[in-house]
């Protein structure tokens, strides 16, 4: 009888792993700021893309008011050094249901310069991550199931991403491949992102370049479930105010507003509506600080 109960509990845990890990990483660990406000969040080749060091911190939350609701906290920093090199750092805490995923990544990028307005960026990230199930949520009685114990005993693991991007004037097209060491993993309960392709073009309204609009297309691939297509546009006024609107193939609309103060600090707010799969709205707040390293 106890053996049957153990099998039932183990099966339930595997189902929980499948749902929380796949959906949490597929939909939730997908910060909205990656599309316009910080390219480094999706492509390591953008580490150090500006001459001034940048720091970006965000928190994304959904199912607000529910216990164990998904929550993503992401801290990134990047800077340029040398003539064509850049470096970056990301620290991520991603919690969805009973699954907690902590990740740290360091990145290096190199810019191949064809002219003053044409570049090819290459980048790579080395990641160290750990995934853990919350025993207190799964086993209210305090007993630790063998499946949970085995999963939690895996410790820290290595992974990596690679990316490239081509830029000419106001045009950009890039691609990233994620989770290189996990591409052929045998655990069917995971659904990590595999790759992302993205392109955009910035159009100015006048010769003074005070106002611009940037259309964007993005396609993100996943191992098991439906891929996500995103189309978006951002309006920007003189690096003081920006507003963006998004549509995703998951059936949801998203919007964003942001302000910049004296070209060194930026505050953003994003909202995502309900998806066709029944996921509640998401909220994201972000803060960017640009360090003035000029003498």
From TrEMBL:
InterPro entries: PorP/SprF_Bacteroidetes. It comes from the Bacteria. This is PorP/SprF family type IX secretion system membrane protein. It comes from Danxiaibacter flavus.
């Amino acid at each position: 009888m106890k053996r049957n109960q153990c099998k039932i509990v183990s099966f339930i845990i595997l189902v929980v792993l499948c749902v929380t890990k796949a959906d949490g990483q597929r939909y939730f660990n997908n910060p909205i700021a990656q599309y316009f406000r910080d390219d480094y969040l999706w492509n390591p080749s953008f580490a150090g893309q500006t001459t001034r060091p940048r720091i970006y911190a965000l928190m994304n939350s959904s199912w607000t008011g529910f216990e164990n609701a998904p929550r993503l906290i992401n801290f990134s920093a990047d800077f340029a050094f040398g003539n064509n090199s850049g470096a970056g750092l990301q620290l991520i805490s991603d919690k969805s249901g009973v699954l907690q995923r902590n990740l740290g990544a360091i990145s290096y990028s190199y810019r191949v310069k064809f002219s003053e307005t044409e570049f090819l960026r290459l980048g790579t990230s080395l990641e160290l991550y750990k995934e853990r199930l919350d025993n207190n949520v799964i086993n209210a009685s305090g007993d630790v199931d063998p499946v949970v114990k085995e999963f939690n005993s895996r410790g820290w693991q290595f992974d990596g991403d690679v990316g490239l991007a081509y830029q000419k004037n106001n045009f950009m097209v890039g691609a990233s491949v994620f989770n290189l060491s996990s591409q052929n993993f045998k655990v069917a309960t995971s659904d990590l992102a595999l790759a992302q392709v993205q392109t955009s073009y910035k159009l100015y309204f006048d010769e003074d370049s005070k106002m611009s609009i940037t259309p964007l297309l993005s396609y993100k691939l996943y191992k098991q479930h439906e891929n996500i297509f995103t189309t978006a546009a951002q309006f920007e006024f003189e690096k003081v105010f920006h507003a963006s609107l998004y549509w995703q193939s998951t059936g949801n609309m998203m919007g964003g507003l942001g302000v910049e103060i004296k070209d060194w600090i930026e505050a953003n707010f994003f909202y995502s509506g309900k998806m066709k799969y029944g996921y509640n709205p998401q909220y994201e707040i972000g803060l960017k600080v640009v360090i003035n390293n000029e003498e």
